[in-house]
Amino acid sequence: MPELPEVEALALDLKGRLEGRAFAAVHLAAFSALKTYDPPVSALVGTLVDDVTRHGKFLDIEASGLHVIFHLARAGWIRWKDEVPALPPRPNSKSGLAVRIVLDDDTGLDVTEAGTKKSLAMYVVRDPLDVPGIASLGPDPLADEFTPAVLAAILEREGRKQIKGVLRHQGTIAGIGNAYSDEILHAAKMSPYRPANGIVEADLDVLYAAIRDTVGAAVERSRGLAASELKSEKKSNLSVHGQTGKACPVCGDTVREVSFADSSLQYCPTCQTGGKPLADRRTSKFLK
Questions:
Q1: Which of 81, 113, 135 is the last residue of a domain?
Q2: Is 255 helix (H, G, I), strand (E, B) or coil?
């Protein structure tokens, strides 16, 4: 799933490619992806791209006062096309294509989604805050406004909720997903099950530094990369997420996994749970 660093780099890459270009056509191949109806998609034709930015994990292409916003969800991605096929894509084909954007020089973008669970979303709005997911976002972890005091207030408000879930919740902190929450907690040497309001004083400083350093370093590594390189860059720099059964790069212990209905988390017992494995999120008592 693309998270803040990948979407930040994707926005930077696309800004260099799209700025000043005009929308020639927008083809919906998966009608379920479009979540808005006013303005219509047809209103984009002829508009000029002014900027490409992000809000949390949302990608925002601004064109002549309109905003085309994508949430790539778990399996979505955007691929640059040096040459767009002349024929429009067939709706609801099995290619994985959701949206094709054609520019005035016959280059363009293919917005794709792998798998059968279709969660990718596209919005055409006049104001990004018209997208409910953007309007409800928590603070950006790389913004100057995200201070230790802001984090402390969040943790206190979340009470005994497990810190893993707090970090992932977009209405609490924007842009951090499953992968980087695992990486942050590994860097902070904290159990994913630790209660949020139990992280105070020195531990708060450690967690704050882990958030800023982990996400910030990922952004810097990704900056300047083409969209086609971002997924492999992310995977090659993960310490515990997706590394089940491999050696922890810090202590050499075996990275463990806890599975849930639709996701999983990875952690290092030695670094994060005092050497004790987390058998199950409902029964584990290892909170430190």
A1: 135
A2: coil
> How would you list the strands of the sheet with 23-28, edge to edge?
23-28, 97-103, 108-113, 76-81
pTM: 0.91
Question: Which SS3 state, helix, strand or coil, does residue 120 take?
Answer: coil
Contacts of 4 by beta carbon, 8 Å cutoff, 6+ apart = 54, 56, 57, 140, 141, 142, 174, 175, 176, 177, 180, 215, 218, 219
Q: What percent of the chain has pLDDT over 70?
A: 96
- As a whole number of angstroms, the distance between CA 155 and CA 26 comes to 43
Using CA atoms, how far apart are residues 150 and 137, in angstroms rounded to an integer?
A: 14
- Bond into 128 cis (ω within 30): no
Question: What is the C-alpha to C-alpha distance for residues 84 and 23, in angstroms, rounded to an integer?
Answer: 13
Would you say 95 and 89 are in contact if contact means Cβ atoms under 8 Å apart?
A: yes
The verdict on 98 and 202 lying in the same domain is no
Strand order in the sheet with 58-63: 49-55, 58-63, 66-71, 121-125
Residues 6+ apart with CB under 8 A from 257: 244, 264, 265, 266
* Residue ranges making up the domain that contains 41: 4-135
Average pLDDT over residues 233-250: 94
Task: Report the CATH number at residue 80.
Answer: 3.20.190.10
Three-class SS of 169-189: CCCCCCCCCHHHHHHHHHHHC
Instruction: For residue 102, give both structure tokens.
Output: 């054609």
Number of structural domains in the chain: 2
